[in-house]
Specification:
Layout lengths: L4 E4 L4 E5 L3 E6 L3 E7 L4 E7 L15 H14 L8 E6 L13 H15 L4 E6 L4 E7 L5 E6 L3
Parallel strand pairs: 1-3, 6-7
Antiparallel strand pairs: 2-5, 3-8, 4-5, 4-6, 8-9
Length: 153
């Protein structure tokens, strides 16, 4: 079976199985990855903002909606969210605002942690913040995530 590399764009939520790989590029956006070590299933959401300004239909651009969409994929595969391993990436302060806590990246990091905490799920690892972009690749066969930091001059 050949490896398929699936590229996620901002607002995308994708779920697949081994040997597929999920790939994305992050700045202030944030990715929550989920991997099921027994079934070799997993997914990723790449959200832009913590929540919508108004009530709308579920939209992967927003953290809570993106995670709910990811959980729907888990259910469609007859698995439960507590069976997965979670990691979070991104939330950079690319524009280098002077008020760190008000940056979009900081708000996205906080939102991701709250989303998982509210669902009673733990984060195994995080690589968040900073002032650089990240390319991340989730290998659904191993659960390994490869991260490349991209420095901005």
């Amino acid at each position: 079976m050949s490896v398929k590399r699936i590229i996620l764009l901002p607002g995308d939520v994708h779920f697949s199985r081994a040997p597929d790989q999920l790939y994305t590029l992050l700045g202030s956006c944030l990715a929550i990855t989920a991997w099921h070590p027994q079934r070799l299933l997993g997914g990723m959401c790449h959200f832009l903002l913590p929540k919508p300004a108004h009530n709308t239909a579920p939209d992967g651009r927003y953290g809570s909606d993106a995670f709910n969409l990811l959980c729907q994929f888990m259910q469609q595969n007859t698995t439960f969210p507590n069976e997965y391993r979670y990691q979070i990436y991104g939330g950079s302060n690319i524009l280098q605002t002077t008020i760190k806590d008000s940056s979009i990246g900081s708000r996205n990091i906080y939102a991701a942690k709250q989303i998982l905490l509210n669902a009673a799920l733990s984060i195994d690892f995080e690589d968040t913040g900073g002032n650089y972009s990240r390319k991340i690749l989730l290998d659904l066969k191993t659960g390994k995530i490869t991260v490349h930091h991209l420095r901005h001059e």
